[in-house]
Write a structure and sequence with these properties.
Layout: H1 3-8, H2 10-21, E1 65-74, E2 77-93, E3 96-103, E4 112-119, E5 122-128, H3 133-137, E6 141-145, E7 153-163, E8 176-189, E9 192-194, E10 197-199, E11 202-214, E12 221-233, E13 237-247, E14 250-263, E15 266-268, E16 270-273, E17 277-281, E18 288-293, E19 298-305, E20 311-317, E21 323-325, E22 335-340, E23 344-351, E24 356-363, E25 380-381, E26 388-392, E27 397-402, E28 408-415, E29 421-426, E30 439-442, E31 449-457, E32 460-466, E33 474-480
Parallel strand pairs: 16-18, 25-27
Antiparallel strand pairs: 1-2, 1-14, 2-3, 3-4, 4-5, 5-6, 7-8, 8-11, 9-10, 11-12, 12-13, 13-14, 14-15, 17-24, 18-23, 19-22, 19-24, 20-23, 21-22, 26-33, 27-32, 28-31, 28-33, 29-32, 30-31
Length: 481
């Protein structure tokens, strides 16, 4: 059995990376002496007096978040991904209020949580969302120690005979492993550049991890090594981490760099949207990041409408869509349904230069059997700039209007559809004279648009019709801007 098997076996690779994930945002060193003279890991004892985080390199507080761009590369190719680290709550563990650090896509391998406690002597790992054999055995250790002293290191983990919780060799017996990890402060550096900016007086910390896997069916050990280099800026925290994993001569590399953050009230790279609706233009070189405030534990739909070019909507927090709708042949959706576990939602937009769009967020329509909302002689009023839930019954028509607009050009869009529906826009309340659209992006049924820009008007009348083949009707988000 060789390293190629280990790196191409996805569950096993995720297991290896998850060991690295335990060290997360707070992998720091110092204060432990010379690791060459230590054979055991530093005992974990919390609540004692100590020097504290004097440089402010680890701002671990509820409400802080970091957005990263990541790249994974190996001999088989490479791929790009995003990851966010956020602190949304605390969790009581053994009488301590541990911070819950949630990653949406750590090292490109999905959601992961760590439970971290910071005191005057360092940062401790008290557990993780991995409740299996591995998670139980690799917890209760120092992530790092204060103060940060260049050249000092300590043994972070030194454990043997652990149950891997996996049967890698197929003999119906769980295999085991030994682990040893040493953390060292390499030094301080200036002009550290990441996508969100350039930083000085950055601390560089390295962790070297050795793993020996003992397979029950084979006499020889399979050895793995990992080196993780992390960089932290004062009052900002995590800037970059790179991880290199080598198993039996086969290597895979990961790099994550800070693209946006919100730390202790200061932010960079994030467009914080207060009114839930924006109009913007994508930049060819840079992704644009948006943060929406929402109610936690609610279903939301984020929609991108009114495109004049090609742009992609990328969910970052949470890191995936429960359901998405892609009208045009893009990699990412232009409508995304999510369930927010916190009071924040983050999305990125990328695409062709000068692609213009409107981005909105609203509660996902929860309509088990849609009805027609308005009559031609009694249409429903839609306020400008406020995403509104709409619905139309099977093969039915719902009527809407928006008046009191500033005279000029306006966008009408329906998005977040749970089924097919078509939009038509008219000049007056008789719904007899259809307006032409300077932007007409058709839906799935006919040439009727789902985004329509009309020119030189101060009032708009429009209707939504359910698709002919849809027996249940449709729900959607309406936006007039």
């Amino acid at each position: 059995m060789n390293g190629i098997y280990f790196l191409t076996n996805k569950p096993f690779l995720k297991l290896i990376i998850s060991i690295g994930i335990f060290f997360l945002l707070s992998a720091c060193g110092g204060g432990g002496g010379d690791s060459d003279t230590q054979s055991d890991e530093l005992p974990l004892e919390l609540g004692l007096d100590g020097p504290g985080d004097t440089g402010g390199y680890f701002p671990l507080e509820v409400g802080n978040l970091w957005v990263f761009r990541g790249t994974s590369s190996s001999s088989s190719g490479s791929f790009d991904y995003h990851n966010t680290i956020s602190i949304n709550k605390t969790k009581n563990i053994d009488g301590f209020d541990a911070l819950v650090l949630e990653e949406t896509n750590s090292y490109g391998e999905g959601v992961f949580e760590s439970y971290i406690f910071k005191d005057l002597n360092g940062i401790a790992n008290l557990g993780s969302s991995n409740e299996g054999a591995l998670g139980v055995q690799i917890s209760k250790y120092w992530e790092g120690r204060f103060p940060l002293v260049v050249g000092e290191s300590f043994v972070q983990l030194d454990r043997t005979g652990l149950n891997l919780g996996e049967d890698l060799d197929g003999d119906n017996i769980n295999d085991s492993f030994d682990i040893r990890s040493v953390v060292k402060v390499i030094g301080f550096t200036d002009n550290k550049e990441v996508p969100v900016g350039t930083f000085n007086n950055v601390v560089h910390i390295r962790r070297n991890l050795n793993l020996d896997f003992i397979l029950s069916s084979e006499p020889d050990l399979i050895s793995a090594t990992a080196q993780e280099d992390s960089y932290f800026a004062a009052d900002i925290g995590f800037l970059e981490r790179s991880l290199s994993i080598t198993i039996d001569g086969v290597t895979e590399n990961f790099l994550e760099q800070l693209a946006a953050y919100l730390v202790n009230g200061q932010s960079a790279g994030l467009n914080q949207v207060a009114n839930a609706v924006i109009a913007d233009q994508v930049d060819l070189e840079e992704e644009i990041y948006y943060l929406f405030d929402v109610f936690p534990e609610t279903d939301q739909t984020v929609s991108m409408a009114g495109l004049t070019g090609n742009a992609d909507l990328i969910p970052l927090l949470p890191g995936h869509c429960k359901q998405d709708y892609t009208i045009r042949p893009d990699t990412y959706p232009e409508d995304c349904q999510i369930t927010s576990t916190s009071n924040r939602v983050i999305f990125a937009v990328s695409g062709l230069e000068s692609s213009e769009y409107v981005l909105s967020i609203a509660k996902t329509p929860n309509v088990p059997f849609p009805k027609n909302e308005g009559l031609s002689n009694g249409p429903r009023l839609i306020e400008q700039n406020i995403p509104t839930v709409g619905e139309v019954g099977p093969r039915g028509i719902s009527y809407y209007y928006s008046t009191g607009l500033l005279y000029g050009n306006h966008l009408v869009s329906i998005s977040g559809l749970n089924a097919d529906a078509d939009l038509r826009v008219y000049s007056d309340e008789t719904y007899s004279t259809e307006l032409g659209c300077t932007l007409n992006l058709p839906g799935d049924i006919d040439n009727s648009p789902e985004d329509c820009i009309v020119e030189n008007v101060n009032k708009i009348y429009f209707r939504v019709q359910s698709g002919e083949l849809n027996v249940d009707g449709a729900s959607y988000i309406i936006l007039v801007r």
